[in-house]
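User: Run a structure prediction on this.
Assistant: Running it now.
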Amino acid sequence: MREDMAKVLVEEPRRGRAHARCIQGSRRRRWNRVDADGEGAPAHIGMQRDGLACKNFGDHLGPLYRYLRRQVNRPWNKVYGELCSVLDRRNVVQNHLFQHIGDRVAIDTRWVDGEVHARNGRGMQPLAETRYEMYVHPRTGILLVNRAILREFAGGR
């Protein structure tokens, strides 16, 4: 796993007119311009005024989901350990990514009457009736693909 995965997943590049202070006649130059008498400049200029050089945070989950798909047939404890080593659970934004992992991977699974059941918002249900793409096998602890979802996408074959 990449060492900078937390930045790849959470941070967006800067947007807006970050280079505005370099452009002749830009608004920022006009805001900062001092009159001849020395009293025309604003008392305070905010960091995000006019959206200049602002930076947003968003979830870019594609790399996370690709990473999880590549980890199929590996022990979940090792996969989860690698995620925890890169993503800081004490950081609110990075901890939020673990919720997205729970949207795609059924972690809380049980073996009931010869089939795998997963816990979702409605309680324990057979894995075939859930929308999880992957699941952790309840006996072996290995990350596996939910074949029922694959059949649904393939047209019931």
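The longest strand covers residues 115-120.
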